[in-house]
Amino acid sequence: MLPLVALVGRPNVGKSTLFNALTRSRDALVHDEPGVTRDRNYGVCRLDPERPFVLVDTGGIAGSEEGLAGATARQSRAAAEEADLILFIVDGREGASSIDDEILAWLRKVDTPTFLVVNKIDGLDPQTALADFARYGFKDVLATSSAHKTGIDTLLARALAALPKDGDAEILDDDPERMRVAFVGRPNVGKSTLVNRILGEERMIASDVPGTTRDSIAVDLERDGRKYRLIDTAGLRRKGRVEEAVEKFSIVKTLQAIEQCQVAVILIDAVEGITEQDASVLGAVLDAGRALVVAINKWDGLTDYQRQQNEALLSRKLAFVDWAEAVRISALHGSGLRELFKAVHRAHASATKKFTTADITKAIEIAYETNPPPVVRGHVAKLRFAHPGGENPPTFIVHGTRLRTLSDSYRRYLENFFRKRFKLVGTPVRFIFKEGE
Ligand code: GDP
Ligand code: GDP
Q1: Which residue lies with its CA nearest to atom 16 of ligand 1?
Q2: Residue 258 known to bind ligand
Q3: Predicted-assembly ipTM surpassing the 0.85 threshold
Q4: Which pLDDT band holds residue 245 (cuts at 50, 70, 90)?
Q5: Ligand 2 center from residue 234 Cα (angstroms)
Q6: Those residues with Cβ within 8 angstroms of residue 360's Cβ, 6 or more apart along the chain or in another chain
Q7: How far apart are CA 273 and CA 219, in angstroms?
Q8: Core-most of 139, 167, 226, 345, by most CB within 10 Å?
């Protein structure tokens, strides 16, 4: 499982600024894709690509117990209690306040390891800034300026040292023939109905994956001679007494499931169309670089006229993932499932395709000759050669000079050129540009 880190602190200390600094994708192209919505409360920190973790920006933890503020406070506390690590953020400029003291009193009752992060130290003498909080008695104290991104590397290193490692072994160490698929989507789109439909089919063997805990439920199954591991989704969880507690963290579970899978199937409710929450789950799939299939569910509930209307609207809203296949299904009636599985296989095959250095270098040469990048301030980028940099997603490392001048649109051109040439469907594609002769 991806570890969970919670940001706790009173309003205005810089939690969201820190959240952004930690979760902003290095890959600006992925991040700035129009149509992607960012969840402002949950994100994955990938500053160390080997050790991603989920970050929760809890809202106001100190607040009255009544009304909306009370609900927010309770939720924040629950998130913090569930976390592997709490970062207690305070304002180094303003010093300790009574609300900080209240939060501290609460933190002392919680069993979660906690670092004190004294933020906004830009322009201050760090010793003085820290002194005001010495009486809090924290062993782990960090000084940051999230606005200027100072102290973030140290914070990251300390956090990673405190977080559990290799929690995914039980889910990931398995038969390479077994494809890991996650069914994701917002509540009520039909995930449980779909998963139960798939598991309920004849000629299929399903079993719980041994060693999986309450938090990481996975099911293995065979279908038409192929092996799958369905990774935790709300759909796999038995609904019941823990439902309420679990539901609150379904966003965290979704991020974790996306991380663990090779192919993410996102369910969309055909009747309701694409909501902001759907766009943010799609953004999480893109950030993780996972293969993607869009399943438009509840297709049975639409009239012919609605279907036509729908078709146009969906393709417009899904334009930013136009490389992903969209399949119309009805989980309720079990229609479209064969097509769905075919699309999953195509996406998986593309995502795990093997390339040689010769193939990729040739592709770069042809792409470059067909359409060289434009001259920028008297300079033109040169692409010299390329080699494979990994799979799921397919990653291409391109070497050349003046690569900084390559525009986003030229990068998109390369991506589309590669998609066509290598027939890649259903997977993001990454380019890493390396400057040098
Ligand atoms: P939150 O309410 O805790 O999420 O705080 P925000 O991230 O929204 O920040 C509150 C204000 O503090 C904003 O005006 C930020 O620009 C500012 N701020 C955040 N981090 C820093 C910092 O490291 N240094 C300075 N000088 N200002 C900061
Ligand atoms: P989940 O929260 O994503 O797991 O969604 P559920 O599987 O619990 O489904 C939510 C509701 O949508 C239930 O009332 C289902 O019966 C209904 N539903 C699910 N799939 C379909 C479908 O294909 N067609 C129709 N008409 N209703 C569906």
Answers
A1: 147
A2: no
A3: yes
A4: very low
A5: 12
A6: 386, 387, 388, 396
A7: 29
A8: 167
